[in-house]
C-alpha cells in the first residue's frame, strides 16, 4: 500500500477524456516521476491530487484518507505540498517574509497574518524559517527582495516555503521548466539533498529526462490519459512502448 493510492480515476473535459482509468500507487519515501508526451494528462492528474480538479469517478487516498471533496488548503494541511511551474512567491516581500507566510498559515489555519492566540510564538516560527533557509543555503539572502532573485533562487525559496510545512508528500510540477542548465543542476542537487536528508515522498512531473533520470526511483509513463508502463528508470529507458509514445516508433 502506497502513501498515495489513485484508483480508477477518470476525468473528462467535455468530449475529451483527459484521464482514463488511472491507477497509480506511490510508495513512501521515494521519488516517483510521472512522464509523458504533451497533453498526456500529467497536470490534470496532479490537479486531481491537490483538490484543484475533482475526478468524475475513482478515488484518491493519501495516507489512508480520501482527498476527494477537500479544499486545496485542507489537502495541504493533510501533508501534501505542491511546487508550481512558475514560482508562487510574493515578489514584493523579502525572503524571510515569504517564509513566514506558510508558517503563519499552518499555525493559524488560514492566511491571517495577525492572530491573537498561538500555539507557536512568532519567535519560534522565525527560528524554524531560519533553520529552513540554512538548510537550502539561503540564510544570507533572508533580507533580499524576492523579485530580484534568479529563477533558480526563486525555485529554491518556493521549495523552502513548502518544506517548512513539513509535508509528507512534495509534488513538483516541472520544477526546472525554463531554467538555464546551471539552475537546473542546482535544483537537482537541492532535490537530492532533500531526498537524502528527510522522510519525504516526492512526486515529480518533468519533461527534462536529465532531471527525471537523476532523481526518480520509479517512473510512470502516461499516454493519452492512461498509464502505459511503470518501472525503474533503467527499465523505462529502453522500453519499446515508451519510445513509441514519445517518438512514434512502432514497438
Ligand atoms: N481545463 C481544461 N479544459 C479543457 N481541456 C483541458 C483542460 N485542462 C486540460 N485539458 C486537456 O486535457 C488534456 C490533458 O492535458 P494536461 O495539461 O493534463 O496534459 P499534460 O500531460 O500535463 O501536458 P503538458 O506536458 O503539455 O503540460 C489535453 O488535451 C488538454 O488540452
UniProtKB/TrEMBL annotation:
Keywords, ordered alphabetically: ATP-binding, Nucleotide-binding, Transport
InterPro entries on file: AAA+_ATPase, ABC_AA/LPS_Transport, ABC_transporter-like_ATP-bd, BCA_ABC_TP_C
PROSITE patterns associated with the record: ABC_TRANSPORTER_2
Boundaries of every ABC transporter domain copy: 4-249
Keyword 4Fe-4S found: no
GO molecular function, one term: ATP binding
Domain of life: Bacteria
Keyword DNA repair among UniProt keywords: no
UniProt cross-references to PANTHER family, sorted A to Z: CONSERVED COMPONENT OF ABC TRANSPORTER FOR NATURAL AMINO ACIDS-RELATED (PTHR45772), HIGH-AFFINITY BRANCHED-CHAIN AMINO ACID TRANSPORT ATP-BINDING PROTEIN (PTHR45772:SF8)
Name of the protein: ABC transporter ATP-binding protein
Amino acid at each position: 500500500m502506497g502513501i498515495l493510492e489513485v484508483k480508477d480515476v477518470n476525468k473528462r473535459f467535455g468530449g475529451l477524456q483527459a484521464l482514463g482509468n488511472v491507477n497509480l500507487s506511490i510508495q513512501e519515501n521515494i521519488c516517483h516521476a510521472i512522464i509523458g508526451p504533451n497533453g498526456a494528462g500529467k497536470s490534470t492528474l496532479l490537479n486531481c491530487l491537490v483538490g484543484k480538479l475533482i475526478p468524475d469517478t475513482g478515488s484518491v487516498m493519501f495516507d489512508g484518507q480520501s482527498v476527494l471533496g477537500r479544499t486545496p488548503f485542507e489537502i495541504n494541511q493533510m501533508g501534501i505540498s505542491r511546487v508550481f511551474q512558475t514560482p508562487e512567491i510574493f515578489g514584493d516581500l523579502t525572503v524571510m517574509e515569504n517564509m513566514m507566510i506558510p508558517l503563519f498559515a499552518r499555525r493559524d489555519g488560514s492566511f491571517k497574518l495577525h492572530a491573537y492566540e498561538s500555539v507557536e510564538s512568532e519567535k519560534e516560527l522565525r527560528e524554524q524559517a531560519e533553520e529552513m533557509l540554512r538548510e537550502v543555503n539561503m540564510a544570507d539572502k533572508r533580507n533580499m527582495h524576492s523579485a530580484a532573485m534568479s529563477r533558480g533562487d526563486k525555485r529554491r525559496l518556493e521549495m523552502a516555503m513548502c518544506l517548512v510545512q513539513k509535508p509528507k508528500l512534495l509534488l513538483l510540477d516541472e520544477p526546472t521548466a525554463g531554467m538555464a542548465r546551471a539552475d537546473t543542476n542546482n535544483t537537482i542537487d537541492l532535490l537530492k539533498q532533500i531526498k537524502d536528508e528527510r522522510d519525504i515522498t516526492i512526486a515529480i512531473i518533468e519533461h527534462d529526462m536529465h532531471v527525471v533520470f537523476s532523481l526518480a526511483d520509479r517512473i510512470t509513463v502516461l499516454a493519452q490519459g492512461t498509464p502505459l508502463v511503470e518501472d525503474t528508470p533503467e527499465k523505462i529507458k529502453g522500453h519499446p512502448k515508451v519510445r513509441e509514445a514519445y517518438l512514434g516508433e512502432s514497438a
